[in-house]
Amino acid sequence: MEVPQDRTSNKHHVEMMTDERWQAIIHNDATYNQKFFYAVETTKIFCKPSCKSRVPKKENVRIFRTAEQALNENFRPCKRCKPTNENLPDCEWVAQVTEYIDKNFAEKLNLELLGLIAHGSPFHLHRTFKKIKGVTPAAYILHVRLDAAKNYLIGTNKSIADISICVGIPNSTYFITLFKNKFGYTPVQYRKLYQSCEKKEK
């Protein structure tokens, strides 16, 4: 039996998570479609209960009675289960993935994981991302990581090994090779070059 809306929790149409609803989400139960929608705080995406996407952490889930309520709270419809029965434009979908990479570049990222998070197949994500951004997801991840490494080299005294871990490339030898291929200097050379330029300006 469905539990009525909890109007005391807050003013944003958030409904209570019940065991019944959680089981519907876990088991992709289509009989609950149109009874409620669930949104995930970490991805800002909302779905039908029947969605085949990866099961989110329970504490990150919010429940809404209607798709409109989720939209009003700035959640975006899942591209896989289409809770608004419309296709999410490719540019918006890629923007979601890009935002996730920008915030989580230090984590272990690959096409399969991004596909699960973005609720789409890895192949389709790879093709669509490249069409919109002009680079593959892997190339974009590397770009973000190496740019972050530059900031660490300039703004901190962290060791090269520590920086490589901080940007999600834990193999420091591999990190140094990637950095030099992109910028023409090793991380140590880049840091020294920046420091010498700073001294000259002073």
From TrEMBL:
This is AraC family transcriptional regulator. InterPro entries: Ada-like_dom_sf, Ada_DNA_repair_Zn-bd, Homeodomain-like_sf, HTH_AraC, HTH_AraC-typ_CS, Me-P-triester_DNA_alkyl-Trfase, Tscrpt_reg_AraC-type_HTH. Its cofactor is Zn(2+). Residues 95-193 form the HTH araC/xylS-type domain. PROSITE patterns: HTH_ARAC_FAMILY_1 (PS00041), HTH_ARAC_FAMILY_2 (PS01124). It comes from Lysinibacillus pakistanensis. It holds the Pfam family HTH_18. PANTHER family: ARAC-FAMILY TRANSCRIPTIONAL REGULATOR, HTH-TYPE TRANSCRIPTIONAL ACTIVATOR RHAS. It comes from the Bacteria. Keywords: Activator, DNA damage, DNA repair, DNA-binding, Metal-binding, Methyltransferase, Transcription, Transcription regulation, Transferase, Zinc. Gene3D superfamilies: DNA Methylphosphotriester Repair Domain (3.40.10.10), Homeodomain-like (1.10.10.60).
